Amino acid sequence: MYKTFTRFILVFFLALGMSSPHTLYAQGGKTVTGTVTDPGGMPLPGVTVQEKGTTNGVATDFDGNFSIDVASNDAVLVFSYVGMTSVEQTVGSQNAFTITMESNEESLDEVVLIGYGSQERKAVSTAVSKVETEDFNQGQVSSPVELIQGKVAGLQITRAGGNNPNGGTAIQLRGVTSITGSTSPLIVIDGIPGGNLDLLQQNDIESFDVLKDGAAAAIYGTRGTNGVILITTKKGKKGKSTFNYSSFVSRDYVNRKPDFLSAEQFRAAIADGIIGENNDLGASTDIFDALVNESNLTQYHNFVASGGNETSNYRASLYYKDSEGIALENSREQFGIRASFNQTGLDDKLTFSSSAVVNINDANLLGGGQFGIVTDWNPTAPIFAPFNTSEEGVLYNEGRYGYYQPENGYNPFSEYANRFNQRKQLTFSGDAKLSYEITKGLIASVFGSYQRNSWDDRYYRSTQDYQQYNSGSPYFGTGYAYKGSHLDFTQTVEPTITYSTEIAEHSFELLGGYSYQYSATENYSMDNSGFTTDGFEDWNFGAGNAITDIDLPRPNMSSFKEDNTLIAYFTRLSYNYLDRYFLQASVRHEGSSRFGANNKWASFPAISGAWLISDENFMEGASWVNNLKLRAGFGVTGNQGIPNYQSIVTLGTGGKYPVFLDGADGATYYQTYGPVKNPNPDLKWETKKEFNIGLDFGFWFNKLSGSIDYYTRRTEDLLLSYDVPQPPFVQGSIYTNVGNITNNGLELALSYRVFDEGDFKWNVDFVGSYQNNELTTLSNQIFSVSELFGGNIGNPGNLGSAIRNTEGGPIGNFYGKRFVGFTVDGKWLFHKADGTIGRASDMTEEDKAIIGNGLPKYYASLTNTFKYKNFDLTILLRGKFKYDILNTVDLFYGNPSLLPGNVLTSALGQYSNITEAPQYSDYYLENGNFIKLDNLTLGYNFNLGENSPFSALRLFGSARNLATFTGYTGRDPEVQDTGLYPGIDTRNFYPRTVTVTAGVNVNF
């Protein structure tokens, strides 16, 4: 009965498309019959049986039987099945065969990084996800982590600012874990904790290993609360020297623009008497289109030389990338080199490895932030206009140098012409590791790294800039210059020793180590004005008259330095019994200079175990189960991602006092200093305690494989600033540990090899997650905060904060008025707390309520990968579900009361009945659910002859953010969804784009 049921399940999946029968091509010669079984002797239906070198093939039936005509006794039959190792059998004189196919267990042998070491996948007892090169998102990415967007369950990667080449990427793993501390995972690049993502190019990355749960991340102690992302770069390999050249070009296209009034619609509103006639300024300008860089182009070039022999290998990578944003005056040009070298000696007992990478980039920061002007720009206003301050029939324009200057706004094109804002940055990282095998299984290593990041900022406003010469300007028509420099560096030294041994059926690995990390930051800046010529720009600060002319704004000069030290001792024991039972325990004892004198040190323990159920004797009859492993773990991690010097007294400047020195004609004024914060010797890190239970599985010869994880975590001793009385305290607030955050979630990852026979392959990968976040407590008997407000909506109307996080409630709650309707004359009506209905002027703070939540509950992505002969096609769908979005664009600009300022067409359509100023309420909350066709890539790998100078050649084309399926009416439903204040679609936006890429990759 059991075998019949299992065979039925197999045939059921075949009927869904997992396998398909092949046509029998009669070739004459002889007929061969037989049966194909799995290692347990169970018949395998759907196995492809093909005469090698021909199209002649059949598939086994329900009972695993086949019959095929072959040309002769010399024919070779190839038996193939998803998840099984292919078998070749020469026919010879036999007419009947019984073929046993073995499971392909490659996935269990995969090596996974776990921090300060690695393990085979089957031995991993914690929640770790690995993504390798072949699974990366292809095409143009602004940040290296976007290569794995939608690939790891529980990992959120969001670019709320669009595809701005100078913008940032928000990363969050398993929800919110802190209020004021760091919320991003620790990045470790080739063993360097706190690695700089600017030093990574997409073609240089080998894999990402994501340590998700507390047991996995505890080895990194105070920096592991938000998870750890281990990034491994490519290294040279043994064999002949090879070269690789990769290149792509990409272009951004606006996928959706806000629907503001055009010049024609604006004039129609004037004709209808909605807007006064004096608002027609005579031109027709689509300021949004004018701000778009239609000729934007991003190009990337990467050249690699690599090779190696039995004792050494090397890899050197040169790259150049020039990224132009969709916005004018918005770009980033960068180039650099990454080189690595590895060598072994002394009978392979001594290993030395080293790498160095340099990135030099030049960013134009002037453009990109001006698209908000669309909401203020009169579409009948010109961009260029002659200077005229007369009111008699001619366009009034205070701009003296050819640009129209609105009375209550600004002209971005005037800024582009008369300003520059530039950053030149140099980032370096170097590391080396020396390992020696003292005796069998005993290896001592020392790892050291140095990271250095510096940039110089230049900013200048010329004498022709409107801000410098307008009638109220304090600069009186002179130029303004600013210079700033930044330097941060980190030095790391980590000696470790590992011992591995086997005793009978027991295997042990013991790790011990010490970590020292010192980091420092230095800043310097100065500004001056009063430049009567633009000839020097910012290269002659002494020429600025503001040094002596007190009628001009005072010049400024500042400098700053801070540093911190982190020291740790750590150990980990890994135990393996019968390759079936696995146990791992670790502890890290760590001290940080950031915390108070009474709490410099803390310990972070972890323990986890795994049981490979599928290898038990009682599973022998379940041959369809190839991998079934139960995992459970508990770990404690910390968060020290706060500013330096929060626990001690720091001094700041106050007023000046006169000192009358002997013989002096007047007073000398001395600067006073005083404490700017209250010291807290008890300040300590936030502590997260996390339990994780997971199941890894592989069925039907790993045709269907994946994992499911449930976690629950509690972050204690949250860091927050609390109000305190004066006296006894010197200042009115103190930074201390009080609150708790609790969250839990469920994560699912599935991989389904739908078809993997012959020339056609089809694989489906799904990752999904559910998360629930709660701000459990904020107060204790000494320090009290009842709620945290954030997400300022802004003006006009001073509408305040959109989100309120309260004790015992979920994170990200929208808090505001509840909409009822409108009066007959278009006035707002809202629910009051007492059950009555009131006007906007009647509403009080007590009438407000929770009206929605901006944090998605569910995340999901689906990747389909197709391969046919030399072609491959990848389709990535990604979505977020069950959350709300506050549409602030509709809130403000879908309101006709803002006329004659520019408004959305909806203000004269569906919202035309509104006659009062904008009000924040659930009227402007929308369902944010969406599914995106996020990445579509088509590639072709050429067949190259023996005489070709190339060993491989691939062409590809890709499109990102190609389509969005949503009910949200705003520009894009993918708004900020990390941190405490998610779900707000802000008015200051960078256009979302469709990115189209074409590229080539060649080996020779």
TrEMBL record:
This protein's record includes keyword Transmembrane: yes
Transmembrane region(s): none
Leader sequence residues: 1-26
Domain TonB-dependent receptor-like beta-barrel: 399-962
Location(s) in or outside the cell: Cell outer membrane
GO CC annotations on file: cell outer membrane
Gene3D superfamilies per record: Carboxypeptidase-like, regulatory domain, TonB-dependent receptor, beta-barrel domain, TonB-dependent receptor, plug domain
UniProt cross-references to InterPro entries, sorted A to Z: Beta-barrel_TonB, Beta-barrel_TonB_sf, CarboxyPept-like_regulatory, Plug_dom, Plug_dom_sf, TonB-dep_OMP_SusC/RagA, TonB-dep_OMP_SusC/RagA_CS, TonB-dep_rcpt-like
Key words of the record: Cell outer membrane, Membrane, Signal, TonB box, Transmembrane, Transmembrane beta strand, Transport
Residues in TonB-dependent receptor plug domain copies: 122-228
Membrane topology: Multi-pass membrane protein
NCBIfam families per UniProt: OMP_RagA_SusC (TIGR04056), SusC_RagA_signa (TIGR04057)
Family note: Belongs to the TonB-dependent receptor family.
Name of the molecule in the record: Putative outer membrane protein, probably involved in nutrient binding
Native organism: Leeuwenhoekiella blandensis (strain CECT 7118 / CCUG 51940 / KCTC 22103 / MED217)
